[in-house]
Amino acid sequence: MHKILKLYASFFSKGFVYGKLYKIDWYPGVKLSKKNKTKVFGEVYLLKNPKKVLNILDEYEECSNKFKKPYEYRRVKTDVYTKKGKIKAWIYEYNRRVFEKDRIKSGQFKRSF
Known about the structure:
alpha+beta
């Protein structure tokens, strides 16, 4: 998705959401929480053509109408805390069962290839 973001988005800020991060496979999944004060860290991008880009990202995350429900991820708008202040932004929340043994306690996903 780097290519799509490079074409249709610009970096806004690093930020975090409240929730927990899990290692799903070779990729992560976040579970949001309003009660939990643990943080999951990431980046926020401003979309130049939100409808087009969100459709592409929905396909990538397999949460469009082309895929069987329940989807692995669901796109939700949530509070994101950045150095520029709190904003509302779309994120993809993991939509399946998780296990505490797979939790990434740092809240940051690092690929290991």
